[in-house]
Amino acid sequence: MGLRFLGTTSEGGNCPTLYEIEETGEIVAQGERVTDPKHLAQLKDVKDSETFVVLPRELLIRFAPREARMPELIPFEEASHLFTAFEHTAWRLETQRGYASDRQSPRFERFLRGEPIGAYDPESPWHVSVREQTRQGKRFERVRLVDDPPTEGQRFLLAGGLGNVEAGEDIRNMYRADAVRLGLPDDDFWLFDSRVIMKFVIDGEGVTLGVELVEDPAEVLRACQVRDLAWHYAVPTAEFQKQVRSHE
């Protein structure tokens, strides 16, 4: 079973920290072990397999899920209305090493042939939509995690990134090692108006199996904190492209 990082109130990724078991929604807590003999003597019905850790109340308030209900997995198309219905901000964290939808795009074949794909395309439905939304004062922003060296899928996104920027997106990039150092999660999601999370469920081949829409306040708060941390350290696309080329 996989663990999903929920959050920590410590600096530098140290304990205390909360995780969620993805398949069950149960919480895993990391903290300093209880060693005070007086406290241990007051614990009741303790099994040999159990241990106890100390957690600050703030950690539980900020990051522990408030609902036992697991989000429903729905097709991406059923949630696509959010890309025009949002009022202020649409923010994305992209964590995959490659997306099947990109590999199926005609632009990907052009990329493999070495043809330029980075220009703004006024006929692209996505570019048209972004341009229209940003004209209304809305913001599209992304942070993309990039391996060192970048994977083929990541190089494709970097090559086409400036076209999206010209359409109106603010796309920034960060090396995965830096994201790990900062304690960013592996979640791949959109955050709309700091209120609704569209979380992608993606298999090992980069195929999107569906999305989950989450409005739980604790989950949304965590996503906002991830956004603020990632945005502070991420590098604008044009500058990041120069960094990557200098490492080749």
Write up what this structure looks like.
With 248 residues, this protein is an alpha+beta fold. Helix content is 36%, strand content 25%. It has 10 helices and 13 strands. An 8-stranded mixed sheet has the order 6-12-11-10-7-8-9-13, with helices on both faces. Strands 1-2-3 form a 3-stranded antiparallel sheet. Strand 2 and strand 3 form a beta hairpin. 21% of the residues are buried. The mean pLDDT is 90.
Helix content: 25-40%
Count of DSSP-assigned helices:
10
Radius of gyration: 21 Å
Largest sheet geometry: 8 strands, mixed
Poorly predicted parts: none
The CA-CA distance between the termini, in Å, is: 37 Å
Estimated share of beta-strand residues: 25-35%
Strand order of the largest sheet: 6-12-11-10-7-8-9-13
The total of beta strands comes to 13
* Mean pLDDT over the full residue set: 90
* SSE-based structural type: alpha+beta
Instruction: Please write the string of helix (H) and strand (E) elements.
Output: EEEEHEHEHEHHHEHEHEEEHEH
Shape type = elongated
Labels describing this entry:
248 residues; alpha+beta; 3-stranded antiparallel β-sheet; 10 helices; elongated
Write the layout of secondary structure elements.
Elements: E1 3-8, E2 17-21, E3 27-30, E4 32-33, H1 37-42, E5 53-54, H2 57-63, E6 73-74, H3 82-85, E7 89-94, H4 100-103, H5 106-112, H6 125-135, E8 139-146, H7 152-167, E9 169-175, H8 176-182, E10 189-192, E11 196-202, E12 208-214, H9 217-233, E13 235-236, H10 237-247
What is the compact description of this entry?
36% of the residues lie in helices and 25% in strands. The protein is an alpha+beta fold.
